[in-house]
């Protein structure tokens, strides 16, 4: 009885306020569920509870689709590269060292799926929950209105090696020029690690910039991120917390800087191996109100389109990945890119996008010295896991490159 009451409370916590424009329509012919606000239109799919479209008018009034993905929902499960386009990685986002962790002295071994070797053909660590992590699975649509959609998933005990059942609700809402999301998860039977995120690939030019086909022209500002988590050569945390020294290639906190500004710097290797796929710590003086409208943790802006997004969140880190693994083999959507331009093929090139994943400190379940257990280990009878974020869009016509 208590478990049923907890699940009911979890669902109530997650579901959006009912809209007067409620719709019972299902997905469109491409498997997309659409929601709308005054300034934005967005489409989502059940596969991975993924965002598949985000439409906004640029500084010239031209509509741009500024997130990467595929035209049809069915292709997300077909493409063998599976770059986690727009999905919710889980039940534990990012990397787990040696695919192992301990809870209350009990060791668990989860599905390895990254960096295979002759000795370990499946991989030496776990990325985004294993081979069948959450963003490889179909969620259930439990609510869909004109401006909001909620997905749910039940992750069984033992799936991918994780202990205990987890029930989760993912809610996306549009209002004015803001995309809000809330991710709630409850461990129902055993203590287990939970860390979620949104793995959205951004190109604020809609891949239609006739001056560059990369996102290196985008400006990034991380005002609270003077530190990052140190990693080894396969991006596994070492336990070190590193300073992003002012003026260094990793300095995006002292002032806004173009993502590609340091590529020719002698220390560019640092940027390429750390900034482009590593966790940046958000250091804010507590207590703080993440919704207060002034304390965004990241600002991404393109001088070409004029589109700017400010990210607000209750999380204490985010992963920055600048698509250095893209190689031009993934085709753009019909809503993106340039036509009949041989200099800019309709594919995603290396550095063609950027991912900013709001989340907690990566692999903290293997670093108890960081003191993040209450943020990442959850059990029955305790508080649920909650992640909240707002992406606030605007048009900046005064920005320069």
From TrEMBL:
Position of the signal peptide: 1-20
Gene Ontology terms describing biological process: galactose catabolic process via UDP-galactose, Leloir pathway; glucose metabolic process
Stored Gene3D superfamilies: 2.70.98.10
Gene Ontology MF annotations: aldose 1-epimerase activity; carbohydrate binding
Presence of the UniProt keyword Transferase in the record: no
SUPFAM superfamilies cross-referenced by the UniProt entry: Galactose mutarotase-like
Top-rank taxon, per record: Eukaryota
Keywords carried by this UniProt record: Carbohydrate metabolism, Isomerase, Signal
Family annotation (CDD domains): galactose_mutarotase_like (cd09019)
Family that this chain belongs to: Belongs to the aldose epimerase family.
Name by which UniProt lists this protein: Aldose 1-epimerase
